[in-house]
């Protein structure tokens, strides 16, 4: 029971932290530090190529593909609770990100962009806050880390967790290096993603016991 309420505590701490940063952004109080970090990492050099790879891994198309594969795997293994949990988590995360972007309507540091899906524009402005790349990737990777506890081979679980943590750091960082997001965009996105994940986890594990992948 304590574990379930620990999920709720993490959810609330991250949510409050997100709201704090969001309000600071809304009133322009993060602009100086955002510009400072932007100028600090402007000359990426050889680092730029690696960051482009990382940002492609976190693209909507890549995350959609990985999400679909995971859902198919869960469905084939008859893990109904995990299937619906991940479905709700993923779809809700996308809608949450879209709602927050439309609410805050923060312009990007670079040129104005439109939302694209598989190379086709939706004629909708892609706002900066919070980062969609970051939210999509963090939510997916947190779920991946969560289900690794069901793996029987611990060394595989450790490798998966290490790679996931590396991507959770690298993908958001790539958005700042490539000058398509401010630092506050990705920090806020990480916080709200963690909040959303643990909020969903609290709701699902409150009713259903944790399940194991066979």
TrEMBL record:
It comes from Alkalihalophilus marmarensis DSM 21297. It comes from the Bacteria. Keywords: Cell membrane, Hydrolase, Membrane, Transmembrane, Transmembrane helix. It is a multi-pass membrane protein. One of its GO terms (molecular function) is hydrolase activity. The chain crosses the membrane at residues 7-25, 57-76, 83-104, 124-148, 155-174, 186-204. The keyword Hydrolase applies. Residues 83-201 form the Phosphatidic acid phosphatase type 2/haloperoxidase domain. This is Phosphatidic acid phosphatase type 2/haloperoxidase domain-containing protein. Pfam families: PAP2. GO terms for cellular component: plasma membrane. It is found in: Cell membrane. The keyword Transit peptide does not apply. SUPFAM superfamilies: Acid phosphatase/Vanadium-dependent haloperoxidase.
């Amino acid at each position: 029971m304590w574990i379930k309420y620990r999920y709720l505590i993490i959810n609330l701490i991250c949510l409050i932290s997100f709201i704090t940063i969001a309000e600071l952004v809304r009133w322009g109080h993060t602009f100086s530090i955002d510009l400072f970090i932007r100028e600090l990492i402007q000359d990426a050099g050889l680092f730029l190529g690696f960051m482009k790879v990382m940002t492609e891994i976190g693209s909507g198309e890549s995350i959609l593909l990985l999400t679909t594969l995971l859902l198919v795997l869960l469905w084939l293994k008859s893990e109904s609770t995990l299937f619906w949990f991940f479905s709700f988590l993923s779809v809700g995360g996308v809608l949450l990100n879209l709602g927050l972007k439309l609410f805050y309507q923060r312009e990007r540091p670079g040129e104005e962009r439109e939302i694209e899906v598989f190379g086709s524009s939706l004629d909708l402005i892609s706002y900066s806050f919070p980062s969609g790349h970051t939210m999509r990737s963090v939510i997916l990777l947190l779920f991946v880390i969560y289900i690794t506890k069901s793996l029987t081979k611990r060394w595989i679980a450790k490798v998966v967790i290490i790679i996931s943590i590396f991507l959770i750091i690298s993908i958001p960082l790539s958005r700042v290096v490539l000058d398509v997001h401010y630092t506050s965009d990705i920090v806020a996105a990480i916080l709200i993603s963690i909040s959303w994940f643990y909020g969903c986890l609290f709701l699902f594990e409150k009713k259903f016991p944790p399940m194991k992948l066979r």
